[in-house]
Design a protein that fits this description.
The protein contains seven helices and six strands. It is α+β, with helices and mostly antiparallel strands and about 150 residues long.
Length: about 150
């Protein structure tokens, strides 16, 4: 049977990533970060905390559930990337007129199979965009290694 539990270190890392890359979300939304043991089929996932759980005393708008066994196999860089990835799923929409906030989840920017790209090439705009982003990230990383920063 799986077990869910909070971790101070996981929460601190999640909050650092929120503050660094997701300021808008950190301002309006409350996040819980929990480990789960004996999870099957995922490394991490995000969900909205329903009003029922909030009524029962669970304080938060989103929960990120991290598979502890997968986490233990990752290095620090991979852990940060995984939490950042899950935080990208959260969408916080603020309505000035109604003075209200809506919490939503979004899908990945690009979802494709490797073999489809191998057989059919860059047939979708999302795949082309992802390739462009990857090339720019590689150039940026190479520039940092050489002591230069590229924009």
């Amino acid at each position: 049977m799986s077990k869910h539990y909070e971790s101070r270190k996981l929460t601190e890392l999640g909050e650092r990533i929120l503050d660094k890359y997701h300021e808008d979300k950190a301002r309006y939304a409350r996040f819980k970060f929990v480990f789960v043991t004996k999870a099957k089929g995922y490394a991490a996932k995000i969900g909205k905390i329903s009003s029922v759980y909030q009524a029962l005393g669970v304080d938060g708008d989103y929960v990120i559930i991290v598979n502890k066994e997968v986490w233990d196999l990752m290095n620090k860089s991979q852990r940060k990337a995984m939490l950042d990835h899950e935080l990208c799923h959260a969408v916080v929409e603020y309505d000035d007129e109604k003075d209200s906030v809506k919490f939503k989840l979004r899908h990945h920017d690009c979802e494709e199979f490797n073999e489809i790209v191998e057989r059919h090439g860059l047939w979708r705009q999302e795949v082309k965009t992802l390739l462009h982003v990857c090339k720019n990230a590689k150039k940026k990383k190479k520039g940092k290694k050489n002591g230069r920063t590229q924009k």
